[in-house]
Amino acid sequence: MKINDSYVKAIYDLMVEEKNLDELIKLSKQLIQNFEEQPRIVDFLLDYSVDIKEKEEFLKKIVKNKNILNWFMILISDKEIKGIFIYLKKIIHKYNVENNISEGIIWTTKLLQSKEITQMEKIFSEKNNKKVHLENKIDKEIIGGIKVELDNKIWDNSVIGQLHNLVEKLIKEKN
Amino acid sequence: MDPIVKEFLILMTSTLLSLMIIFFVMTFLLYNPIKENVAKRQKHIDDNISSAEQMNSNSLKTSKKIEQKYNEIREEQKIVLENSKNEANELKTHIINQANQKAKKIIVQAQEEIEKQKESQKSEIESEIISLSSQIAEKILAKEISEKDNQKMISEFLDQIK
Fold it and tell me: Is the pLDDT at B146 greater than 70, yes or no?
């Protein structure tokens, strides 16, 4: 999919001027989560048979900022809305790069306490010499323990991870 | 003398005389040209015979030369044939040797392939056993892992990354 970075730069710079960048970032994260949980929203926005006014009315319910709403409408009219996931992720990435922030995910079988997450964020921030934000997500498939993904690296102390390591070790020894 | 005898003798004498005259005339007019012709004919025949003999002699010489050439060609043919036979035999031996070597190589490769397949199958079976064991272990651990164990692993992780 061809992505035009001008769309990202346009809304990002506008929000910086308006000093509403935090709102854009927060909304981007929320929308990514919403779109992932309900892909039908994207299908609806992509559907050319749906009237553009109907789409605008729908977006007004979730996007309060007028400039961001207009940006969405431009994406729709320019038929660029199919790349909305990538555009939102690029906005967050741009923000993170400019503010020396890394975002990661903690996978556990049960949600951790906020103090545990904060503790981990502190440790990883010190280790990586940058601000680290960690989001805790549930993954029952890891059976137990914890797995952290950050900057394309994985720290795995989950049951399934250890089991896989054991299997790999056995296969290597066998060969 | 009886007149009849006398007449007879006269007639005889005249007849003989006539015959002699005819003989000499004929000899003069016919014998010599005929003799010359015969001599010419004889010479012509002799020349022809001589020519034929010469031709025969030449022919014999040519025939001998041809025979000699033929024999030489036969000899050359024999040598060429012998060489061809030798070359064919060498080629045959070479082809047979090559075929034998190829066959041996194919057999060795086939044996190696069989060994590899055996190893591969063995390895696959072992991997399958490990995979199945892992799946069983996953199911057992999913039931057996307690909240305490879970928390212990998280604490261990925090200690490790510090």
Answer: yes
Q: What is the pLDDT of residue A158?
A: 93
CB-nearest partner of B145 from A143, A164, A166? A143
pLDDT digits (tens, 9 = 90+) for B11-58: 999 999 999 999 888 888 888 888 889 999 999 999 999 999 999 999
Q: Closest approach of chain A CAs to the CA of B105, in angstroms?
A: 27
CA distance, residue A86 to nearest chain B CA (Å): 32
Closest CA to A132 of A140, A143, A141, A124: A124
Q: What pLDDT sits at residue A109? A: 93
> Using the beta-carbon criterion (under 8 Å), do A144 and B150 form an inter-chain contact?
yes
- Residue in the block written with tokens 């789409």: A55
Task: Using CA coordinates, name the residue in chain B closest to A117.
Answer: B158
Q: Is it the case that residue B122 has pLDDT exceeding 80?
A: yes
Kindly indicate the confidence band of residue A1, based on its pLDDT and cuts at 50, 70 and 90.
low
Give the integer Cα–Cα distance in Å for A93 and A25.
10
Which of A21, A10, A15, A153 has the alpha carbon at shortest distance from A87?
A10
Question: Are B158 and A123 an interchain contact pair (Cβ–Cβ within 8 Å)?
Answer: yes
Q: Are β-strands A131-138 and A145-150 bridged in parallel, bridged antiparallel, or unpaired? A: unpaired
Contacts of A155 in chain B (CB under 8 A): 157, 160-161
**Whole-complex ipTM:** 0.71
Given a cut of 80, whether residue A175 has pLDDT beyond it is: no
Instruction: Reduce the DSSP state of residue B2 to 3 states and report it.
Output: coil
